[in-house]
């Protein structure tokens, strides 16, 4: 029997080892029930550069045979059995909460959450000038503006990290404290309203457990704080509709979080919920004016809430530093929201706005 089984084991191992090469480019079926999202396949490098061997490796790995079944096996072995993240940019917290820690292209990771990062005096001064430029430039064009900071998930749910500090002073705290009062008035920090909403109803999460973004309920409380801030400087139509009482809230299962499906390739191993808000009021009066939102991916769930308050809502998807004042002004806005996620806060200091020249006084 051993004479037969020993070579059989060797042959089986050899076949399994070379099968991905034999089936090169045949990705195979995904074995999980929940869908995963993958980035586009890496192209073969067309020139010799210092990173050419790394690029060839990415090209090869994206086309290895049986790629999807191998990824499913690897995810279930590491994430499901060993409880170990397969991506160093993703932390698995308590109660299966997932957190984005940053990547090589970001200046911010968990270091900011732990209070280790600060802006220099020059950066604070530059950010101050940018904020004043935005205020004065929009005012010259007859519009009101506000810079909104969407919190990182750990700023609201940091207690689910095993080594979470007791709310240290972050870059945002430091910046707001050091800004001139006029520049500070241009910024809206959404951490406070979201933390208050979380404390009032801890059973209804404001962020997805498996995603970097807030859910519809978290976006609602962000919208409510923004529209309340705008109402202090300009008339807002249908302001009474910015109340949670005007919505029905339902909860559904959710498996599509970007951290679970795109990063760890294990959406089925991280159960999550989705809050769905539906406006129930028909008491919407005619609104005027145009709102222009310059925002990142956090605006996807945020923008629709503003529809009752303006005749037109335009979303320009761009990072804070890439906003084009001329493009914004051509839309003739009455209000402009410049949204920036907390981890990209340094864009305020390094943006190149030229607002004063768009609508000279």
Task: Kindly list the characteristics that best describe this protein.
361 residues, alpha/beta, five-stranded parallel sheet, 14 helices, 9 strands, globular
How does this model look, in words?
There is one protein chain. The chain is α/β, with parallel strands linked by helices and 361 residues long. Helix content is 37%, strand content 14%. The chain contains 14 helices and nine strands. It has helices at 2-22, 52-61, 67-81, 110-113, 121-140, 153-157, 171-178, 181-184, 191-200, 216-231, 258-263, 299-302, 325-330, 347-350; strands at 90-92, 98-100, 144-150, 187-189, 247-254, 272-279, 290-295, 312-317, 335-341. It has a five-stranded parallel beta sheet, sandwiched between helices. The protein is globular. The protein starts with a helix and ends in an 11-residue tail after the last helix. The mean pLDDT is 85.
């Amino acid at each position: 029997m051993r004479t037969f089984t020993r070579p059989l084991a060797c042959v089986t191992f050899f076949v399994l080892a070379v099968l991905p090469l034999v089936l090169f480019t045949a990705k195979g079926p995904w074995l999980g029930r929940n869908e995963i999202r993958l980035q586009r396949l890496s192209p073969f490098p067309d020139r010799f550069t210092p990173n050419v061997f790394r690029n060839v490796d990415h090209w090869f790995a994206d086309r290895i045979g049986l790629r999807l079944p191998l990824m499913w096996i690897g995810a279930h072995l590491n994430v499901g059995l060993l409880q170990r993240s397969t991506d160093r940019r993703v932390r698995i917290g308590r109660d299966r909460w997932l957190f984005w820690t940053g990547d090589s292209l970001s200046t911010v990771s968990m270091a900011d959450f732990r209070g280790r990062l600060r802006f220099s005096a020059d950066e604070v001064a530059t950010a101050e000038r940018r904020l004043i430029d935005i205020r004065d430039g929009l005012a010259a064009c007859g519009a009101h503006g506000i810079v909104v900071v969407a919190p990182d998930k750990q700023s609201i749910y940091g207690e689910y990290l095993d080594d979470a500090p007791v709310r240290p002073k972050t870059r945002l705290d430091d910046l707001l404290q050091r800004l001139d009062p006029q520049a500070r008035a241009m910024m809206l920090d959404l951490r406070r309203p979201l933390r208050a909403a979380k404390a009032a109803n801890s059973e209804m999460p404001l962020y997805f457990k498996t995603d970097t973004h807030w859910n519809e309920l978290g976006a609602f409380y962000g919208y409510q704080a923004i529209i309340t801030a705008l109402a202090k400087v300009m008339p807002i139509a249908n302001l009474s509709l910015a109340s949670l009482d005007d919505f029905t809230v339902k909860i559904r299962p959710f498996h599509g979080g970007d951290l679970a499906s795109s990063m760890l390739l294990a959406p089925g191993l991280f159960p999550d919920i989705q809050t769905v808000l539906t406006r129930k009021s028909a008491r919407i009066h005619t609104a005027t004016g145009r709102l222009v939102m310059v925002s990142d991916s956090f605006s996807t769930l945020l923008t629709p809430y503003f529809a009752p308050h303006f005749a037109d809502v335009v979303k320009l998807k761009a990072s804070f530093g890439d906003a084009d004042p001329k493009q914004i002004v051509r839309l003739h806005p009455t209000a402009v929201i410049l949204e920036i996620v907390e981890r990209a806060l340094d864009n305020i200091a390094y943006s190149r706005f030229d607002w004063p020249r768009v609508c000279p006084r």
